[in-house]
Amino acid sequence: MSYPGYPPQSGGYPGSGYPPQQGGYPPQAGGFPPAAGGYPPAGGYPPQGGGYPPQAGGYPPAAGGYPPAAGGYPPAAGGYPPAAGGYPQAGGYPAPGGGFPPQAGGYPGQPGPGGFPSVPPAGGGWGAAPGGYGPPGGAQPGYPGGPAPGQPMPNYPGAPATGPSMPGYGGGVPSNPQAPQVPRGYRGSIKDFPGADPLKDVEVLRKAMKGFGTDENAIIELLGNRTIKQRVPLVAAYKTTYGKDLVKDLKSELTGDFEDLVIAMLKTPSQFDASELRAAIKGAGTDEACLIEILSSRSNAEILEINRVYKSEYGKTLEDAISSDTSGHFRRLLVSLCQGNRDEREAVDISLAKQDAQKLHAAGENKVGTDESQFNAILCARSKPHLRAVFHEYQQMTGREIEKSICREMSGNLESGMVAVVKCIKNTPAYFAERLQKSMKGAGTKDRTLIRIMVSRSEVDMLDIRQEYLKAYGKSLYTTISGDTSGDYKKLLLKLCGGND
Description:
- This protein is mainly alpha-helical.
- The protein has 21 helices and no strands.
- The longest helix has 15 residues, at 300-314.
- The radius of gyration is 32 Å and the shape is elongated.
- The two termini are 43 Å apart.
- One of its GO terms (cellular component) is cytoplasm.
- One of its GO terms (biological process) is phagocytosis.
- Belongs to the annexin family.
């Protein structure tokens, strides 16, 4: 087994220039390859009668090798392997009290709280610490994989956590260590406008609305080239400068979908999400797809902020609003999601992913009836990286995608809600690409959905959504928006789209 961060050595431990001696220590399997030229080197230091150890001064280490302890090699009584603690050298591999050489199976580090293997990755991933494999803080892991003095024997996989909450899910580090994802940089379509000044910007907006008629192009050019953090301060700057409400003035000048889009762009993300959730709940009928879209795609911190804003703006909690407007298992799904309490750890333990896949199979396809609560517990509480592993294991185990099983086991809002959660977790940009396609497909456009996604994702993953849209539907999102909308509304939407593919 090899570990990222270790150049694999043919036969095991990198050569340090200590080959076994005739009559000395028998070589271990996969032991030290002899240094070029053998030992002793030509003209070098022959062993004394009896062979080993050499006289004081010892054997000079090869470049990059192990400097001997003062007084030569081997160390003090206790011989080879060295006494507990081994050779403490910068960048080296100290041997613990468990001895040397490594046991079969490779080079794990010390056991950690979640089991085996377990040294938390140094910054940047496994083995990224200067000098090789080591945890942050300078403490070197033991070599070989036995426990360090005073540590319990590692338990594989991570033992369940104590307490009635959940199994010991996500504990320790991944049991299938992978290279960290390469950061892809900013994936939004709107970028900060250099040198933007709110006081100058509101002057432009005031001129665009003052007098006879409205200069819509000036509004489009300004708002379409400002990020959220540059647009939101315009409301306060406008009132400070002119003593008037910018939103009210814009509403008096604009109409229809263009007005809705402009007003949406002047709200903070949490204000906008809260207002969309409010609109989805109140009145005749409920927009269940909107509720699922927002609650399954936002982070814990975003959901908690939405809850705060919702209570502040509308006088009741989001949970109460959802509970009074929905019912049954679908209500439970939404209430679970609106807690903003999903595990957000990146570590994935494949053994636990397999356990969860088996639980989902036992709760659905493998029993008479369906245990919806088990689906709810796993889909709403587990981390997104973990759930992606669960979905993969489920398909490997059953030969069927999890969405297909949900459709066979559930119906109505619960079915569509669960499937939406799965799709959003599997591939968020592809989920939004599908939502955009549905909003523009067929007779009429679901403009509220189109506006919400274009505004809320323009600084998150719009470039990825465009790629997924092109891949899924064979034409660019830009082209579809151009063909399905018109006028100023189309111009501003295309600004948020950011370009053609």
